[in-house]
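Quick one, tokens below:
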């Protein structure tokens, strides 16, 4: 059996080969993280052999498959070993889609007050909230905040307005309320766009 003079380099080369489907920057980030982890572990446990440390890290194919699954590029190693021809994909929907659906839900209700305007607005709001919650572009806290500010609060305000004898009299008050609601939706969508993950 052939032994390598540099097992770390061979290990990282194997990970790089297995993760060739990753974008180049993500692949380099993965390799840098692994190299740093190996260095830190060697410093913390100087009596551990490098082979033992690499074994603890795991099989290069498994590491690459996990990285591929996390980025939505597919699980090449897993599909090759299991015989499945389809790759696992996540986050297929562009992050702008749920934000536009949530933001445009209000204009449908305001511009078309008779059916089907409110129905389309509600469907947009529900679909946008579901797409936001299932997206990989935001953390759980960001998703919760986004759904509360773009779906729950506007729905509660509109329901309260409609159930209370039509709200305050006068077109100016209704216009200001709708503009404030639209500002809330646009502001939240802009914030979500700014904090999204690539």
């Amino acid at each position: 059996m052939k032994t390598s003079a540099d097992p770390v380099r061979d290990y990282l080369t194997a990970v790089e080969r297995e993760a060739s489907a990753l974008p180049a920057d993500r692949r380099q980030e993965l390799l840098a993280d692994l190299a740093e982890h190996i260095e830190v572990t060697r410093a913390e446990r100087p009596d551990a052999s490098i082979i033992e440390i690499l074994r603890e890290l795991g099989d290069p194919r498994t590491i690459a498959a996990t990285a591929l699954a996390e980025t939505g590029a597919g699980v090449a190693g897993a599909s090759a070993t299991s015989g499945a021809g389809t790759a696992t994909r996540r986050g297929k929907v562009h992050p702008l889609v749920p934000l536009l659906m949530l933001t445009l839900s209000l204009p449908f209700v305001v511009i078309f007050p008779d059916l089907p305007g409110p129905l389309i607005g509600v469907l947009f709001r529900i679909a946008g909230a579901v797409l936001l919650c299932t997206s990989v572009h935001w953390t759980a806290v960001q998703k919760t905040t986004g759904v509360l500010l773009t779906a729950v609060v506007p729905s509660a305000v509109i329901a309260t307005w409609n159930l209370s004898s039509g709200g305050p009299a006068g077109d100016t008050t209704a216009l200001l309320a709708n503009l404030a609601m639209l500002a809330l939706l646009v502001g939240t969508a802009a914030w979500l766009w700014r904090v999204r993950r690539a």
